[in-house]
Amino acid sequence: MDLYSGHINRLIDELSSLPGIGGKSAQRLAFYIIGLPKDRVERLARSLTDARENVHYCSKCCTLTDDEICPICANEKRDHRTIMVVENTRDLAAYEKTGKYEGVYHVLHGAISPMLGIGPGDIKLKELVQRLQTETVDEVIIATNSSLEGETTGMYISKLIKPTGIKVTRIASGVPVGGDLEYIDEVTLLRALEGRTEL
Amino acid sequence: MDLYSGHINRLIDELSSLPGIGGKSAQRLAFYIIGLPKDRVERLARSLTDARENVHYCSKCCTLTDDEICPICANEKRDHRTIMVVENTRDLAAYEKTGKYEGVYHVLHGAISPMLGIGPGDIKLKELVQRLQTETVDEVIIATNSSLEGETTGMYISKLIKPTGIKVTRIASGVPVGGDLEYIDEVTLLRALEGRTEL
Fold first, then answer.
1. CB-based contact B33 A18, cutoff 8 Å
2. pTM for the model
């Protein structure tokens, strides 16, 4: 629809292509942005391109970071013999927020999903196996989501690691089935961590 | 919180400063944006700065436009003797979407609100009065929102224009009291237009 001028339409189109932003929200946002001071808009635009340009995978745990190695992997006070495997950086943040987990992480950036055609080769599993071969690891805690894909991925990883003799555990299903880790309260997350069982 | 790296945190901060985007949505958006192809992010960022740089007020009706005069004011097929006064460009778009209004518009960019300290001098009223002095106008249709501010603004404008002898009408209150024009269905908007009464 050509209700607005070219630049406004283009901005609305771009904004409404983002997840969770519908047509009406995109309109509201567009007019809000046009009304902002010029330097605020430039700062917003720069934060987008800067993040996209400078953020990459940690060379150890594959989380998103500005540096070669992320602050958690670089922290010598963390227990580097315990690795928690999560699906994405937001799930890592959810456990970090509890402030009680002292180990390190491995971020898969996805989960195995035959439905969506996502196989073991499409997530950061190779990198996990490599870590287990080069680092001394006592325990791998599987903290993928308790969705079908998350469970599948957890089972796959446990079968992969078991032969190496490393202890593999799964966070307890205090997490509601079908739920998404990042939306769960910290107490439940901790309970799930405490109740983890060996696979 | 320093859960993420500097660039990610900055992006999340910038996004969550936008209206209607909370912390969780900002996180989701940030990771979505970081995962997009580079040229898509650059296009998104450019659409923000381009819109902010190039969009300005139409020199006739004060709507937001890329050109000196907006497409509606430049359209000779429109009835330039009928001016509909709206609070903002989104409200203009709401009436344009009905496809039945043939007159032109005047966009106030706000409404009089003693509570918020917004007086007649803070909205594009001077520009409306100037138009009425230089153009031949038969009717001014007041289509401000049916909120307290919108009604106040409508009354103020009608008192201002009445002495000039120009017909002043108000869209019918088919629009629910307290409602916001842009969220109302087209049939209700048209009914309100048809049922307008002289003030």
1. yes
2. 0.70
